[in-house]
Amino acid sequence: MSIADDGEQLSLLRARAPKRPPSPVPVAPTDPVAVVQVDTGLAHLDRPFDYLVPADLDADARAGVRVKVRFSGRDLDGFILERRAETEHDGRLKLLRRVVSPEPVLTPAVLAACRRVARHYAGPLGDVLRLAVPPRHAAAEKALAQDVPQPPVTQSREGLADVPPSWIPYAVGPAFLGRLRSGGSPAASVVALPGHGGLRMLAEAAAVAHAAGRGALLVVPDARDVAHVEEQVLDLLGPGHHVRLTADQGPQARYTAYLKALRGHVRIVVGTRAAAFAPVRDLGLVAWWDDGDSSLDELRAPYPHVREVLAIRAEVESAALLSAGWTRSVTLEQWVREDRVKSIVASRSLVRASSPRVRVASDETEGARDVTGGQARLPSLAWRTAKDALAKGPVLVQVPRRGYVPALTCQDCRRPARCAVCSGPLRLAESGGFPTCGWCGQVASAHRCAHCESPRLRAAVIGARRTAEELGRAFPGVPVATSGGATILDTVDDRPRLVIATPGAEPAVEGGYAAGLLLDAWALLDRPGLDAGEEAVRRWFAAGSLVRGSEQGGVVVLVGSPAHVTVPPVEALVRWDPSWFAAKELDERSGLGLPPASALATLTGARRHLMAAVEGVAWPAGSRVLGPLPVGAAGADRLLVTTSRSQGEALADVLRGVRAMVAARREGEPIQIRMDAPDPSG
DNA sequence: GTGCGAGTATGA
DNA sequence: CATACTCGCACC
Question: In terms of pTM, does the model score above 0.90?
């Protein structure tokens, strides 16, 4: 290490360089070296670089602050990871240019979690830091007073029962909460009992953590759930103990929320996936709702899932971990099986009483499509159920989102309509016209079913609006409310009416719906992809959980399911046994070597670049490399690599090397590398 | 990505 | 031999 130059280019090796005497800038007296993670955006430069701290920046240049540094002739952003006495770098060190803000926004715990997330997803740390720490907002920093007192930690447990209400149905609930309260780090996957709180379990667990002087981080799929959980937290603890953190609140509000958590103004953060990295003080609990919801998947590289981020954070900070939902995802079932989390479910007798009775109306067998004069797609069982229930309260009708299921089926034999050229699924554009192939784009202007030669096609899904009209006609005089798309109803009152909703937009109703109709079951199950069954189960249980339990006469009718065949998702619904389904699905995937039973990586890009990138790569022992196969329409290919779960980290490490190599040699066109892609085949 | 040195091509 | 160019790699 030598005395710094002024930060500009000055090579002593070059004779021609103007022999300016190095103007000695005083550096910090202790730990003058700042280890800086520079945001270069280049995978092969994803490592820390050392800089010298000028004396005048000494106080501000703490670990965790944002800085500007000169790097390869450009001014780049970075974070100080640590201060050191010495450097290991042989050359000259440049000076830190500037401390962007003295706020140490990257805490050691969050940094540790980011490193592990980066490793898990074979991505650059820089990318993860970009997800974790929101962009600085100077006005927000200024507006938030430095001296807001931390709320006194409520050590008293008055007003909070040992086992809060929503946790009562679970035999091992007290054990989980007890360990949370006493500073332990239990981990559990809860299958929530309908009618007993659901989301409220998260808020109550947070209140338990809070009472024990621990912080809590609650992540839910969407803004509606955030509002709901906030309400519950307010109800339990009163104002001033939590903050909302979502991406859609805008840069200033988001940064303010981040700072409030960072500075310890509040110890509870409630938010969407943007909150998963929030620097909650004394983190004692991480919890999330509905693991299978795709909103928990980050959309920016390296695409970490909330589940993975929170599990890592729980481990880094010795916090309790709680995943809850109406169903259990296959991944969480895998975690249960690995004993990473304990299964928490209510007893079968409670489940039977609290869940609605489920009946299956296959439109083929009921054959009563005509009850309403020919238009509505409503078998008589569904119609009669709704009719009866409307005397007692509102009836929920779940319809798949318009355009959500693009598949077409044969009107006569009900088999999926396939492209004559490549056997891909045919789709109908919303704008109409001929069906086209979803894989090769071929226009099927003269389609005939490959099985029965019928030219007639059946749109698997009709949109919510049309369904509303049809049902309105089927039940004259009954008010119809719709929720979905741009207009989402939060709640409806308990007067009799039809409530037509798309999945995820079902309004809550005090006391529960008298009945629920789940339409187009067939279409939902028929979706392409690994997780069609899992997804159908999620959606059906989410709607069914809003219906009164069988004890109060609640009934759910599944409409349009496969005739004469009992597929596991349907059986799971009828028995109201989500964990049974998860276990069965996991067994099946284990048998096929598919995730989450195995680790999986996808590499996407032009075929020759893929081949160049993986040439000579030593995959972990036992890995399978599949492909490359074409995906999408852009001429890209995809390579799949699977390996055992125990080799997952090793696979990620190999891929990190591949990524760095591709980035370093410039002719290497960008290829996308992704671990645990939710839809590896499409 | 950018900047720089090494290495190589080019022409007098 | 001087100059012009590309290539490969380090970047603190």
Answer: no
CA distance A414 to A407: 11
What's the first-to-final CA gap in chain A, in angstroms? 52
pLDDT digits (tens, 9 = 90+) for A313-355: 999 999 999 999 999 999 999 999 999 999 999 999 999 999 9
* Helix pair angle (A648-664, A607-614), 10° resolution: 110
Cis-peptide, bond into residue A678, ω within 30° of zero = no
Q: Which DSSP helix (H) or strand (E) runs through A311?
A: helix A306-316
Question: What length does chain A have?
Answer: 682
Nearest to A297 by CA among A273, A331, A332: A273
Q: Cα A106 vs. chain centroid, distance in angstroms?
A: 22
Structural contact between residues A122 and A302, judged by C-beta atoms closer than 8 angstroms: yes
Residue A410 and residue A456 in contact, taking contact as beta carbons nearer than 8 Å: yes
The whole-angstrom separation of Cα A308 and Cα A482 is 35
Cβ burial A612-626 (10 Å sphere, 16+ → b, else e): bbbeeeebbeebeee
H or E element that contains A304: none
User: Do the Cβ atoms of A208 and A160 come closer than 8 Å?
Assistant: yes
The predicted-structure confidence for A25-54, as pLDDT tens digits, reads as follows 899 999 999 999 999 988 889 999 999 999
Q: What sign does the CA torsion over A30, A31, A33, A35 have?
A: negative
Nucleotides of B under 7 A from a protein CB: 1-5
Contact A181, A173 (CB under 8 A): no
Place of tokens 């520079």: A38
Checking each nucleotide's C1' against the CA of A73, the nearest proves to be: B2
> Which residues are paired to A484 by β-bridges?
A487
CA A675 to chain centre: 14
Task: Give whole-number Cα distances, A419 to A307, A389, A429, A435, in Å.
Answer: 38, 43, 15, 9
Apex A402 CA angle, A398 and A407, nearest 5: 105
pLDDT (tens digit per residue) in A186-238: 999 999 999 888 999 999 999 999 999 999 999 999 999 999 999 999 999 99
What Å value separates CA A664 and C1' C9? 9
Helices (H), A20-97: none
**What is the Cα–Cα distance from A445 to A184, expressed in whole angstroms?**
64
- Name the residues contacting strand C (CB < 7 Å): A 42, 44-45, 49-51, 69-72, 87, 89, 91-94, 664, 666
Q: Alpha-carbon distance A69 to A76, whole Å?
A: 5
Q: Phi then psi for A8, rounded to 5 degrees? A: -90, 175
- Do A498 and A481 contact (CB within 8 A), yes or no? yes
β-pairing, A457-459 vs A408-410, is antiparallel
Name the closest residue (CA) to the C1' of nucleotide B5.
A14
CA of residue A72 to C1' of nucleotide B2, angstroms: 6
